[in-house]
Design goal:
This protein is an alpha+beta fold and 110 residues long. Helices cover 37% and strands 28% of the residues.
Length: 110
């Protein structure tokens, strides 16, 4: 893998996505509201336990700094969600290296 740590993190599948944890909400209902936002391409449920729904929202394109998190925050405020955590994923080096090593083991002649 070539590149700086930040360049490699940007190759992570989750880089640029926004994680949202909401207390007392159902993941399916939260995802439905988020998927109506024009900036978002898709959402996934990461986890739903102990009354907290953890949703990851993926932007359609490369958004400007913070605009996806801002749109999600505004939606959360409008809907009255009890937000426990909200942050933009920077990407994870362990995931990038895992993907690289997995592709190397699947294609040993490459």
């Amino acid at each position: 893998a070539n590149g700086t740590p930040d360049e490699l993190k940007a190759k992570s599948d989750v880089a640029g996505s926004v994680s949202l944890k909401v207390k007392g909400g159902q993941a399916s209902a939260i995802r439905g509201k988020l998927e109506a936002l024009p900036l978002l391409g898709k959402t996934t449920t990461v986890e739903e336990k102990a009354g907290v729904a953890w949703i990851r929202a993926f932007p359609k394109d490369k958004p400007e700094n913070g605009e996806v998190a801002s749109a999600i925050s505004a939606t959360a405020a409008k809907e009255g969600w009890e937000v426990v955590e909200l942050f933009t994923e920077r990407g994870r080096l362990d995931e990038v290296f895992w993907n690289i090593t997995q592709s190397d083991t699947k294609n040993p002649n490459s």
